[in-house]
Specification:
By secondary structure, this protein is α+β, with helices and mostly antiparallel strands. It is built from eight helices and 20 strands. The strands form six sheets. The chain has a five-stranded antiparallel β-sheet. Helix 4 crosses helix 5 (217-231). The mean pLDDT is 95. Bound molecules: flavin-adenine dinucleotide and uridine-diphosphate-2(N-acetylglucosaminyl) butyric acid.
Length: 343
């Protein structure tokens, strides 16, 4: 344990990013209380100006180089039932709580709504960043509010649902307020009577396979965990950051043209004018699935996931991602956007 006022210089981030890149931070510090956080920020302002990067579990970051600044790791812990009404529990979790452990805790307590989001790596504090989502649920569906510290203005702010501008893998924190706030806690509005979301086909199939006759939050969580384990690589064993790209949306007329040329193309109506495509399908069709160059690769079971077989650098993965973007654009006229945060 080191004192809060000590920044660790030239610090390896290998254990703190799920790609397992051995990049270094010029300075590193972790905080377990909001007082420590404020003290660290106070002290840091006397150092020559260098950017501050907030780190949770490091499972959605691509470090392309050493970090010339301060990496501040959020280790705030604690979960509290702060309120309830006839239908809901309001559960506040500190930002450094591990997301999956928080989901498991809520299921055990009978707080429903997070079960589809089981096994997503990372921290509670990062969950609003990109409005994490899986198997038909996004955190915006159960979000109540969050507290965040404004780094420059040195005050606490509360954000409610409308303030966060949640979209598909988007929020105000991802771009507009990037590195401006430290999210310190998130409060979720969870149901007393669960409303099970099993519309994602694979869940129903998995529940059947498991022999489940009566739905429960725990059964859905287990089904989601089984599906995820069957196709997503465990970052402890193979460095990755989940889906590297977002699923793109295109106009209906563009989709119709593609559908004529590629009848198997996978797409889902998003609204009256847009179709969302499965980026994994597009990438696979370009021949990248299972591709490996040096230690950078495209996962053999899920083409949307780029992997580090050991000694790839963030630059290697970034270059591979650029090649993939270019080839998908050439074949389909569709531009993929990266989901991961580049540093
Ligand atoms: P980090 O990687 O540490 O940070 C991500 C970004 O958030 C950075 O820009 C960072 O600066 C910022 N940030 C982190 N904490 C804070 C804070 N307290 N305050 C302000 N900014 C902060 N995502 C999904 O949405 N759905 C999935 O199904 C999914 N599956 C995944 C599967 C695997 C195998 C992996 C490796 C990743 C997956 N992800 C998924 C991506 C990732 O798990 C999520 O984005 C997660 O929320 C990242 O949490 P983290 O704590 O690791 O964030
Ligand atoms: N597909 C292929 N080839 C592949 C991968 C996918 O053809 O190699 C096609 C299949 O037709 C499949 C479809 O794509 O049916 C969708 O695949 P999957 O169900 O695996 O979901 P995804 O679109 O690849 C998204 C999220 C995941 C989330 C799952 C489940 C994005 C960018 N990714 O993946 O989120 O867990 O759905 O909801 O939206 C993440 O964001 O990191 C992440 C893992």
């Amino acid at each position: 344990m080191y004192h809060a006022t000590h920044f660790l210089p030239d610090y390896s981030l290998k254990a703190y990013n799920s790609f397992q890149f051995d990049v270094r931070a010029r300075f590193f510090a972790a905080f377990q209380t909001t007082e420590m956080m404020q003290e660290l920020l106070e002290q840091y302002q006397w150092l020559p100006y260098m950017p501050i990067h907030i780190l949770g579990g490091g499972s959605n970051i691509l470090f392309t180089r050493d970090v010339d600044g301060l990496v501040l790791r959020n280790e705030l812990n604690g979960i509290e039932l702060v309120n309830e009404d006839a239908d809901h529990y309001y559960v506040k979790a500190m930002a450094g709580e591990n997301w999956h452990r928080f989901v498991c805790y809520c299921i055990e307590q009978g707080y429903a709504g997070l079960e589809n989001l089981s096994l997503i790596p990372g921290s509670v504090g990062a969950s609003p960043m990109q409005n994490i989502g899986a198997y038909g649920v996004e955190i915006k569906d159960v979000f109540h509010s969050l507290e965040a510290w404004h780094i420059n203005e040195k005050h606490k702010e509360t954000f409610y649902l409308k303030d966060c501008e949640f979209g598909y893998r988007e929020s105000v924190f991802k771009e507009k307020y990037r590195n401006r706030f430290i999210i310190t806690s998130v409060t979720y509005r969870l149901r007393k009577q669960p409303v099970f979301q099993t519309s994602y086909g694979a869940i129903t199939q998995e529940l059947e396979k498991m022999g489940v006759t009566e739905l429960s939050s725990a059964a859905i969580a287990k089904a989601v965990i089984n599906i995820r384990r069957s196709k997503l690589p465990d970052p402890e064993e193979l460095g990755n950051a989940g889906s590297f790209f977002k699923n793109p949306s295109i106009s209906i007329s563009h989709f119709e043209r593609l559908h004529e040329a590629f009848p198997d193309i996978v797409g889902y109506p998003l609204n009256e004018s847009k179709i969302k495509l499965a980026a994994g399908w597009l990438i696979e069709q370009c021949g990248w699935k299972g591709y490996r160059k040096g230690d950078a690769g495209c996962h053999e079971k899920q083409a949307l996931v780029l992997v580090n077989y050991g000694n790839a650098t963030g630059g290697d993965i970034f270059r591979l991602s650029t090649e993939i973007i270019e080839s998908v654009y050439k074949k389909f006229g569709v531009r993929l956007d990266r989901e991961v945060n580049l540093i």
